[in-house]
Structure formats: C-alpha cells, structure tokens
Amino acid sequence: MEKVLEKWTSKINEMVIGATKEEGGTRSKKVHIGGETTLPFLHFEGEIPYPPVVALEVWDIPPEEWSFISEDLKEVVNDPLLWAKKVEEWGADLLCFRLASAHPEKDDTSPEKCAEKVKKILETVKLPLIILGCGQPDKDGEILLKVSEVAKGENCLLGMAAKDNYKTVVAAATYGGHSIIAETPLDINLEKQLNILITDLGFLAERIIAHPTTGGLGYGFEYCYSIMERTRIAGLQGDKMMAIPIINLVAQETWKHKEAKVNENEAPQWGVLNKRAIAWETTCAVGYLQSGADILVLAHPQSLINVKKAISELMIKT
After folding, report:
1. Structure confidence at residue 196 (pLDDT)
2. What is the DSSP letter of 246?
3. By three-state DSSP, how is residue 19 classified?
4. Helix (H) or strand (E) holding 81
C-alpha cells in the first residue's frame, strides 16, 4: 500500500547559538536548532536535522515567586554563579540567565550592573547563553544594550524584543553579533507582524526565534498548542516570516501557578507537591515539543532529565 505523505515546500530556518574559541567566543560548544522540513517528529515525512534543546533558568536574585524551586534548590538560588555551575553539571544544553533584579518593582538594578553580572556568568560557565531582561520592555532595551557589549562575540540569544522595544533590542543584537527572541501575545498575525518589523531594520530572519507567550498546562494549553502548530505549518508552506524556530519559557508558566505551589496538606486530592510540580513542568514541556518547540526553558533539574529522555525517544526514527 502506498504511503500518503504531506509534501512541504519550505523548511524552518536554522539557527546557531554560542561561539567557540575558533569563532571568537569562549563557549565550549554551539547549539543548533531548526532546519525541519516536516512537522514535529514525523521522521518518515521529512528531515529533522537537530533535536529540540533544553535550557535551565538561573536568576540573578532568588525566585521568591517560585516557592517550590526556591525550596528545592535552596543550596544554590542565593548564588547565581553556583547555580550556573550546577546547571552545567546537570547537563542542560543552554543556560538561561534572567536579570530579574532589574525590574523597577524589585531592585531596579542598573544596566551597567546587569552587564557585570552577565560577564561573571560568562566567565563561570561555558554553556551557550540565553539572556533575558526583567520583563519591562523599556528597561530591557537599556539592559540588553549594555549586556550585548560584554557578551560581544559569544553569539547569545537576547530577549525579549517586543513591539515597544524591538528597535533597541535589534540594535543591541546587531552590535554584539547576537540573535534575538521576538515576543508577542499569542496571536499568529502579531507574531508575523513583529518579525516583519524586525527584518525591515535589516536584521536577518535567520537570527530570530519566536516566543508566542504560551501559557502553562491547564491555562489555555490547547489554544497555545494550536497557534504554535499553525505557525509551524505556515513556515513549512513557504511563509518566510513564519519559518522561525520557537522557544517556550515553560518554567515561568509553570512555577507561578497554584498547581506547582500548593502542598498536599492544603490540597490532598492533588497528590504530593514534589512529584506533582515536576510532573506539571515536564508534561507542559513535552506537550510543546509536539507542537513545534525548538528550545524549552525549564527550572527543575529533574524536569530536565525527564524532558531530555522524552526528546531522545521522539528522535528515534521508526
């Protein structure tokens, strides 16, 4: 019986994160993503040259909003450099450094101080870096201008570039030779529009990765999944502005919710918090793998183990 296969006309852009000594950087390795010519894990239908990769988050201040993480990783959360070393030991593909202290409602750390923190992280670990600001667009633009300077030549992934600050973030990334995360609300048209605006500035589409601000498991997951899937299909059908790899910040959409905070004494019907919270992060991540995620950003080391195991199994060609 003849197999009926979908024939796509295009492929997803390839991206490299990190630069080794030979390329002017100091990273121990590079991470490749993208290049797919088929939907996730349909190996019989096209090529998937690189498996999805997994990053672990490190904050420059303790993540008090993530009570379970703060407790379970209490030996490292007060020391970002020690935390970063552990992330490398745990086997993450990348390190995601979040400059949370810079938010005006927290420590309002200056861009210069943020740059110093990034420099220390670069000196401490050799993983390719994702560098995130504090989530306040104007401040993030200022932060990333300074961060880009100290990380020049390291080919980092900077975020977030949003509609209110994309010009500044593009300027920062261009100067330092970095790629950027383009963040939009969960709307395929807004996603495409931002990519067009960024490339209109002369920034290469091949250096953009999309963050469609997806929610966590139980918080509109099916809708998030469908938008990501539509994005991937549009890219494979030849829309150059949608042929962009996708990143999901699973940690930030898991650990802030009650399902990953409330202990078994308060909600015995939910089961033991330790197992439940990790399962919540793992399940959310594996779901997004199926809809086209190229990079997953997690927080718990056990989730990292679980998700990397799932990726290995899904990458087996049958």
Report:
1. 98
2. B
3. coil
4. helix 80-90
Measuring CA to CA, how many Å separate 233 from each of 82, 225, 241, 264, 288? 41, 12, 12, 41, 15
Tokens describing residue 244: 């962009």
Residue 57 CB partners (closer than 8 Å, separation 6+): 63, 96, 97, 98, 251, 252, 297, 298, 299
**Angstrom distance (rounded) from CA 204 to CA 207:** 5
What's the pLDDT score for residue 217? 66
pLDDT < 50 stretches in the chain: none
Closest Cα to residue 30, out of 18, 39, 45, 21?
A: 18
The three-state secondary structure class of 161 is strand
Which amino acid belongs to residue 311?
I
Beta bridge mates, 32 = 16
d(CA 197, CA 217): 31
**CA–centroid distance for 154 within its chain:** 17
Q: Residue 144 region, left (φ>0) first, then alpha (ψ -120 to 50), else beta?
A: alpha
Domains for the chain: give ranges and CATH numbers. 40-314 (3.20.20.20)
Give the separation between CA 290 and CA 19, rounded to whole angstroms.
Answer: 29
End-to-end Cα separation, the chain, in angstroms = 17
| Bridge partners, residue 58, by sequence | 97
Cite the DSSP H helix spans in 91-212.
Answer: 111-124, 137-150, 166-176, 188-200
Quick check: 99 and 151 in contact, CB under 8 A?
Answer: no
The answer to whether 87 touches 65, Cβ cutoff 8 Å, is no
> Token pair 């993503």 is at which residue?
33
CB 262 within 8 A of CB 273: yes
pLDDT at residue 260, as a whole number: 86
Exposed/middle/buried for 206, CB within 10 Å: 0-12, 13-18, 19+?
middle
